[in-house]
């Protein structure tokens, strides 16, 4: 009986050691499997035969211990080691690794969980596993705001276009030199002497342009119905956007002076400072003081050297390339001479309308006044992309304290006409001047640092952040979240059921999955363009393999020895 039991005891040794060899073999086979978790086989003794339960001691007897004979071993458990493998970069955007606790959630015929982040994009640009299961996460709206809650498939629509966004806010930074000279002068441009055709009287604002003649050739009209003016003057040395004026039978001298003032971006809404030596900006026709039958077109610019006007050469020409008017620096009727001087600075920046069309805006700031309480600067905004003739779009003031910090900014809301462009009319945005100071410096400098509009863009690439957000990068320089990878954690990872293919399912002892964002609810972070490696320790597995094979050999010797003894017993019985 005992020899027969020894056979089965040895057999149990074979069973458990070959089970361990199977586990070791599986670990070694998956040593290079992404995010593979190694296992170990744990043994326990089988039931015991009790020959004696033992006796208790008394005053005459010391007692005996129980006598039990074991009947071999069995596999107690096969545990999985969920310790983290090393994370190695791959450079592949769709690859992900979990740094810490948690599992990716995938959906095929059923919901499963995995730490294998070797994902790819299918034909519909959806994130899928190597077996075709959909990677689950949270979607994002058109503004890039992640919508937490229900899980969904994650898509990365490479090559698709995003809608444009109109600019609503612009930020400027820089410094306005407080040591500069106050702007007191402006450009005053005078045309040649002009008269009514025939030279009988001086023109007025109501005179038709077709009745206007050069005073040196009064018999020849300068303009005819159907002529078209092209205005392309300079301001602060910068060529201004072209503006056109078609001459009709009703176009007057006043129409021409308004056209010049608006086309050159001269702002006429600046409040009068009461100084008789400060020229008033605008266009006008002024009679000549000596030639009673003649007068001049006069264009007066805004203060500051960066607002200096120039209408030389063919700045104002007809369709045949000729220039009927000649403008030079001069004086106005009040005797004030052209002198565009004083501290000023110019910058330009681009904003976008609702269709994503770039709209160029020029901004000039001039030092308007100084006081013990601080300086006041005036800014002028113009835009050649404004769809009406008038390129002047705004003017306001910047008031600084005696530390050079901005106290107040007025008229910072800017509107640009976009009539008949298909875009929302008008384009309206605010300029934030909080980043501007007025301190002593060698030069005044101003630049745009940020604006929130953008053109239509195509999704070119994407990256995955530590919080699992999939952030797309567009050709227009914008980026926004396309979705967020979700992670699941369990109270007991050991309770998960291996479904094969490096995926797990919920087990009876795993607990329910706690699903949320990475870095929340105990979940780890996500490493984009990287993969978690297997946690198999090959040196340890080789040791286990040797121990298991030795145990297997020893158990087989128990069987062979028992067999020899039984054979000997049978031979003796004959």
TrEMBL record:
Residues 341-454 form the Flagellar hook protein FlgE D2 domain. Residues 9-37 form the Flagellar basal body rod protein N-terminal domain. Residues 530-571 form the Flagellar basal-body/hook protein C-terminal domain. It is found in: Bacterial flagellum basal body. The keyword Iron does not apply. Keywords: Bacterial flagellum, Cell projection, Cilium, Flagellum. SUPFAM superfamilies: Flagellar hook protein flgE. Residues 97-154 form the Flagellar hook protein FlgE/F/G-like D1 domain. GO terms for biological process: bacterial-type flagellum-dependent swarming motility. The keyword Ligase does not apply. One of its GO terms (cellular component) is cytosol. A flexible structure which links the flagellar filament to the drive apparatus in the basal body. Belongs to the flagella basal body rod proteins family. This is Flagellar hook protein FlgE.
């Amino acid at each position: 009986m005992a020899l027969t039991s020894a056979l089965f005891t040895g057999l149990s040794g074979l069973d458990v050691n070959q089970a361990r060899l199977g586990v070791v073999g599986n670990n070694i086979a998956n040593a290079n499997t992404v995010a593979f978790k190694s296992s170990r086989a744990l043994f326990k003794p089988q039931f015991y035969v009790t020959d004696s339960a033992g006796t208790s001691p008394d005053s005459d007897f010391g007692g005996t211990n129980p006598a039990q004979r074991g009947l071999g071993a069995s596999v107690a458990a096969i545990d999985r080691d969920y310790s983290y493998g090393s994370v190695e970069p791959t450079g592949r955007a769709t690859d992900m690794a979990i740094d810490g606790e948690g599992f990716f959630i995938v959906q095929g015929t059923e919901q499963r969980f995995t730490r294998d982040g070797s994902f790819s994009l299918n034909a519909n640009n959806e994130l899928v596993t190597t077996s075709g299961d959909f990677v689950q996460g949270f979607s994002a709206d058109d503004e890039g705001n992640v919508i937490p809650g229900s899980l969904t498939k994650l898509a990365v629509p490479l090559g698709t276009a995003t809608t444009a966004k109109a600019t609503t806010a612009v930020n400027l930074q820089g410094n306005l030199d407080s040591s500069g000279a106050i702007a007191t002068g402006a450009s005053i441009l005078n045309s040649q002497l002009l008269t009514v055709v025939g030279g009988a009287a001086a023109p007025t604002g109501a005179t038709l342009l077709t009745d206007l003649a050069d005073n040196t050739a009064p018999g020849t009209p300068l303009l005819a119905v159907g002529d078209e003016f092209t205005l392309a003057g300079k301001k602060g040395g910068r060529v201004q956007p072209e503006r056109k004026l078609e001459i009709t039978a009703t176009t007057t001298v006043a129409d021409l002076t308004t056209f010049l003032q608006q086309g050159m971006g001269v702002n006429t809404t600046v409040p009068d400072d009461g100084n008789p030596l400060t020229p008033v900006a605008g266009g006008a026709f002024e009679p000549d003081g000596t030639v009673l039958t003649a007068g001049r077109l006069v264009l007066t610019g805004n203060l500051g050297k960066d607002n200096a006007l120039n209408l030389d050469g063919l700045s104002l020409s007809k369709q045949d390339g000729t220039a009927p008017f000649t403008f030079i620096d001069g004086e106005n009727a009040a005797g004030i001479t052209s002198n565009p001087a004083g501290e000023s600075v110019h910058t330009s920046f681009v904003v976008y309308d609702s269709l994503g069309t770039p709209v160029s805006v020029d901004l000039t700031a001039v030092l308007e006044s100084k006081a013990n309480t601080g300086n006041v600067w005036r800014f002028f905004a113009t835009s050649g992309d404004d769809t009406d003739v008038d390129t002047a779009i705004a003017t306001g003031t910047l008031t600084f304290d005696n530390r050079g910090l901005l106290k107040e900014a007025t008229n910072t809301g800017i509107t640009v006409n976009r009539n008949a462009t298909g875009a929302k009319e008008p384009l309206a945005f605010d300029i934030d001047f909080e980043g501007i100071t007025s301190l002593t410096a060698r030069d005044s400098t101003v630049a745009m640092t940020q604006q929130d509009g953008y053109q239509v863009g195509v999704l070119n690439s994407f990256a995955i952040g530590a919080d699992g957000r999939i952030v797309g990068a567009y050709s227009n320089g914008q980026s926004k979240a396309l979705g967020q990878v979700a992670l699941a954690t369990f109270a007991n990872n050991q309770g998960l059921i291996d479904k094969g293919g490096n995926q797990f399912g919920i087990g009876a002892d795993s607990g329910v999955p706690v699903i949320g964002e990475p870095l929340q609810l105990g979940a780890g972070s996500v490493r984009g363009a990287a993969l978690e490696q297997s946690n198999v320790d090959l040196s340890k597995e080789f040791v286990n393999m040797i121990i298991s094979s030795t145990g297997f050999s020893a158990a087989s010797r128990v069987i062979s020895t028992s067999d020899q003894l039984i054979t000997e017993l049978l031979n003796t019985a004959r």
